[in-house]
Amino acid sequence: MTRQEGEKVLGKSVRMERIMDRGTGRAVIVPMDHGITMGPIEGLVDMRSTIDKVAQGGATAIVLHKGIIPYSHRSFGRDIGLIVHLSASTKFSKRTDQKILVTTVEEALKIGADAVSIHVNIGNDYENEMLEDFGDISRRCNEWGMPLLVMIYPRGKDMKDAYDPDALKVCARVGTELGADIIKTSYTGDIDTFREVVRGAQAPVVIAGGPKMDSDEKLLQMVRDSIDAGGKGVSIGRNIFQHRNVIGITKAVSGIVLEDMEVEEAMQLLK
What we know:
The chain is of the alpha/beta class. It has a single domain, classed as Aldolase class I (TIM Barrel), CATH 3.20.20. It contains eleven helices and ten strands. Helix 7 (191-201) links the parallel strand 8 (182-185) and strand 9. Helix 3 (47-56) packs parallel to helix 10 (246-259). The longest helix has 18 residues, at 127-144.
């Protein structure tokens, strides 16, 4: 290994420790990139306040788009890792399954990112373009020693079940095959099938939170089950930043992921 190659490997390792807990190798990521898709929804208006709350709650990283960072950066409070999202689409798009690149790895570096993320949907007419972008971003991340999180899902007119274990196994493995350092995908719904997703992926897998849930206990049980199946954490947005008690729910999720709490113990943190 040349000195330059060694520096890239070290750079990625240093940055990975900024977005994951070094003791457990797990992550509590709170994506807040929804504004570009949905607009200024609840929880994403006063960005500094929301970010401060999830940081207080123990989250290891947040996901933001480049333009909102100047309105989100805090010069106070607990530090938190920054993942800059490179992909985008809006709710008005006629190509609902397509994500395009709107930011480069180099831009993210200049902004101060600890990692970058991209969104890929497989099983639709735009899969080829998104996979090509994925490969290119992965190459550039390796050049700069930048960790890459891929958010990857089975979405398209022929994909009938977004939680199908076989489809999610393909998603997770695609993420690894193209060089992602962390893979975000949906939870299958049970421990045994999700264990297969994790085992087949090789790279660390974190679960998405999905649409807003009506029960804290159901959310925390999903998190607990994913960890028991070998998952490496969560990437939960609306179920955290739109919660009535943002600090409390972040503490509860972090307690399970980073401290191996059981659901009953974590629920106490919401009281």
